[in-house]
């Protein structure tokens, strides 16, 4: 039975029957009567074949149900239908209703077939679109892979370019640092050249003055020599004449140091005033670029002057000992050894090793706890000023009597005879807060007053600790390792400030 139903479903007999009926309806008015009858007979034959297959399926179904299988269904539905010549009578379904139901069934089948075909078409179209989308996706994926490969390549090239740029930047920075160091070195050399030119001009002027003074002194000595040796006259009296008495030994001629002492004295005092009025102010302006505290700037300059005087005095004493040791075996003449040593020092002031003294001053300032300086700078910045102070202090020691600066300590009692107060001082304060410029003293007498700042509570003012600088520490260690001479210990009692 199932095979019969399957063949009937596969053959689509009802669909063929429906198509023939539709064709008969469309061409019924156009066809002849015989043609229409032929079509109707064909439909009846087709219907009978379908009914035959249905009856065969019905019998098989009934036989599969056993002896009493389906008897009630055949009695209640098939026998009344066969008795009324295939038409139900007295039932709820009329002939028109059955036709309507058949028509609705056919319409539904048609709609279903149309929907199925439409669905198939839509599925086919969607599959085509899906294939196109897959192809586009594959193309997009390939483009994405190519773009990613290009991006990786560009990234690698950019990384190499960046590394090259960083190396170039590092090289340029190193070149810039070297250029700055060279410019600073050249600037210092230019400053030194300017200082040397100024010193040369100054020395040339002194030489001219000394030559004129020498000519004047030589003329005076010649005139004095002529006046001290009058001609001898012959005495008539037996008494011994005064002219024939032996003359006292002539006094020793004045040395070069004695002749130029007053001149050098006045010039050194004037130079000391210039250091205070001009060089100090220039150095303060230079230091203010690196140090914001004005008090610290003044302390640095004052301590630099004090250290320069101290180092110059030590150098003068050392040179005087060497000169005495050099002249003592060969000294002879009317002058004493000390006068000869002093004259030798005055004539050879240019033998003073001022650069060594500048290094000693800077070394002493580096270990001074009262002053501070930025770590990126050094006290070498003060080298021109320290050199001038050392030269003046050294030459002051060769005077008779020598010039010196007095001992100065913070918190001492204000001495009106030695110092004058600065403009920002508290004029009622009795104690010195800090010194600005030392006084100049000659044999206990003040020649030039110094300058200081007085404030109340000067003793309780905190001292600024100086932060160590790696640059200065390394340079100090290198100089100390290269120089075999012993450095001076920073003892507060031996300081001249």
* Series of H and E elements: HHHHHHHHHHEEEEEEH
Would you identify the regions where 5 or more consecutive residues have pLDDT less than 50? 87-93, 230-251, 460-497
Number of strands: 6
Shape call: rod-shaped
Residue fraction in strands: under 5%
Distance between the termini: 135 Å
Instruction: Work out the radius of gyration.
Output: 66 Å
Mean pLDDT: 77
Main structural class = mainly alpha
Strand order of the largest sheet: 1-4-5
Helix content range of the residues, please? 55-70%
- The number of helices is 11
Biggest β-sheet description: 3 strands, antiparallel
Keywords: Coiled coil, Cytoplasm, Lipid-binding, Membrane, Mitochondrion, Mitochondrion outer membrane
Region (Disordered): 457-497
Domain Mitochondria-eating protein C-terminal: 264-454
Subcellular location: Cytoplasm; Mitochondrion matrix; Mitochondrion outer membrane
